[in-house]
């Protein structure tokens, strides 16, 4: 079996990874797939959900505001769960905490299917987000600790990229369940989106496998032994993240995550909606001159438009899959700082073109533009899974990664409220709002100058 000393540049990165290590990567990734599905199913069905949970006379602007409130609460819930479960994983173990997080997001997603009012849905989304935020922090730490150093970056890139599969599942649910008029019944006219949320309970079955197969990483066990002998090395203490050399690492991590998460909900999702807007314009133009008004035309072509919307989502996520897989090899060649800088510049340029200069194009245009955009805007997120575990010692790895990634959610949440204000009070269009928000990527170029370079280094003990 390959080891660190006998490896050279020609040795494939996967050579020497054991069966158990592959199993850890597979189970962690599967949890992240379902984690992403639980988050994205709201995005693919929020238009229909808002129409169901709010009175029919509520204007579209109010529905959009409620949807943004739900997204903001989701970000805050993810932050709470990420920090809490990250700390818990440093104290009681990665595998046991992963089981808890999966149960949390599965059960509360299923409960969302029974919401009767918007406030109920929003409260439940908070608890779903707690599990979602926690699972990422725990799983990324476990993969980093179990996979050998030579394969760690590629494995963490694969781990984070599997989120695309969760988005694909949500897209499929949006296209074939939420957007399927055959599922509707007279007794339950909004059965579509409720059924999509109801199947969210299925990931709970994964916890049985985790319980049977996974064991705690050796580095975590060593950290526990050290903590017993030295109380100053106790695991999972947030205050320790802001002491000594860890302070700069923590602040840089939070800042990087804030940029990626603020733009995820304020820029990336708008990219998907470009295809829907183009499809709506084409449908209206095809019926121009008829006696049927535009609203009726759009309603009559709902299924077709919904599938185009999901196609746009698919294109963005497919480009994102490639981008997330590419971040690891790029960061191995030019360093973590260089890779983040590359993606920040690229996504700023693509966002400016897509939302600012090249608006209201045809559906055909978006077939090639959206994958490029997705590659750049999603690739950054893979960097978090790779970089954050490299910043913190074992006793704080779950806590540090969870705090950085999920405190970024808290900082990003006001951006959602800002976008609603820009559109409702300032009269900005969706494209104009997204174009302005893309300026956050330039801020990333400033932040990355303060980030430590970790390429080629072992995980800190």
Properties at a glance:
Growth Hormone, Chain: A; mainly alpha; 461 residues
User: Major β-sheet, in short?
Assistant: none
- What value does the Rg take, in angstroms? 22 Å
Number of separate structural domains: 1
The CATH homologous superfamily name equals MFS general substrate transporter like domains
Spell out the helices and strands N to C. Answer: HHHHHHHHHHHHHHHH
Helical fraction equals over 70%
What does this structure look like?
The chain has 461 residues and is mainly α. It has a single domain, classed as Growth Hormone, Chain: A (Up-down Bundle). Helices cover 76% and strands 0% of the residues. It has 16 helices and no strands. α1 runs antiparallel to α2 (60-92), α5 (149-161) packs across α12 and α10 (246-286) crosses α12.
Describe the protein's topology.
Blueprint: H1 19-53, H2 60-92, H3 94-112, H4 118-146, H5 149-161, H6 163-178, H7 191-198, H8 206-213, H9 218-229, H10 246-286, H11 294-300, H12 302-357, H13 363-391, H14 397-424, H15 430-437, H16 440-447
Q: Could you give a short description of this structure?
A:
The protein contains 16 helices and no strands. It has 461 residues and is mainly α. The radius of gyration is 22 Å and the shape is globular.
